[in-house]
Design goal:
The protein is an alpha+beta fold and 143 residues long. It has two domains: 34 residues; 102 residues, no CATH class. It contains four helices and five strands, in the order H-H-H-H-E-E-E-E-E. The relative contact order is 0.14.
């Protein structure tokens, strides 16, 4: 048998490097599919969420909720940050609404084999203000 200890260590080392590289590659792929991104006011305002298919606003929603909205914020500060708001299904139920985009859809095929994209539900950032126009609550609503 040709068991050279240095050759075995080389194999172990190469195998370890290969496993580390594979794990790192998998981590990059998984983080690349993470749709969340930091809030960017310029991108938010440039994104016409009613027509834009990129869902930039949807990707920023978690960061906005966690790091930019605070109970007691005045309407003027909110509108300075996010704009005047959109009109939508929830305009009568909330004080401000912002269309974020559509959640990822699914693909389907007709009985004739033609592909159809089925869009996911639209998602809206809804804000409730008190009688002094200060933020009470916010949530993402699907419709």
């Amino acid at each position: 048998m040709n068991d050279n200890p240095s050759r075995n260590w080389k194999r172990i080392g190469l195998t370890t490097l290969l496993l580390i590289f594979s794990g790192f590659s998998a981590l990059l792929i998984i983080s690349g599919t993470n749709q969340n991104m930091r809030f960017d006011a310029n991108l938010w305002h440039q994104s016409n969420s009613l027509l834009d298919g990129s869902n930039l606003r949807l990707r920023m929603a978690k960061d906005i909720q966690r790091n930019h909205l605070n109970r007691g914020m005045p309407r003027t500060e909110i509108e300075s940050l996010l704009g005047k708001g959109d009109f939508g299904f929830f305009s009568d139920d909330y004080d401000l609404v912002y269309r974020l985009g559509s959640e990822p859809g699914t693909g389907a095929k007709t009985r004739h084999g033609q592909s159809i994209d089925i869009n996911g539900q639209d998602q809206w950032l809804t804000l409730t203000l008190d009688s002094n126009d200060r933020l009470i609550d916010w949530r993402v609503v699907k419709h």
